[in-house]
Amino acid sequence: MPTNSSNRKIAIASRRLLDKEGTEAVTMRRVAKAVGITPMAIYRHYPDRAALLNSLADEGFEELVAPPPI
C-alpha cells in the first residue's frame, strides 16, 4: 500500500475506477481528475499506466493472501 499522501490518493482513486469500470477506465487522465491533480503529476509516482495497474494488482494480491482478522 502506498504510504505518502499523494500515492495513497492515487491508489484509492485508481482502485475505485478499477472496481466500478474495469482496467480500461484506469487512465492517467481519469485518475488525475479524481484526485484533483494534473495527469503529469501522476508520473512522479508511477512511470506509466502499466506500473500503476501493477501496483493495484500487487495490492489486490496482498489482500488475497493476508490472514483473516481474528
Question: Which key features would you list for this structure?
Answer:
mainly alpha, 4 helices, 70 residues
Overview of the molecule:
- The protein is mostly helical and about 70 residues long.
- It has four helices and no strands.
- The mean pLDDT is about 90.
> What separation lies between the terminal Cα atoms?
21 Å
- The overall pLDDT average reads 92
Instruction: Indicate the percent of residues in helices.
Output: 55-70%
Q: Tell me the structural class.
A: mainly alpha
Strand count, sense and barrel status of the largest sheet are: none
Number of strands: 0
Q: Determine Rg (CA atoms, Å).
A: 12 Å
Shape: globular
User: Which percent band covers the strand fraction?
Assistant: under 5%
Order of helices and strands: HHHH
Name the poorly predicted regions: none
Total of DSSP H or I helical runs spanning 4+ residues: 4
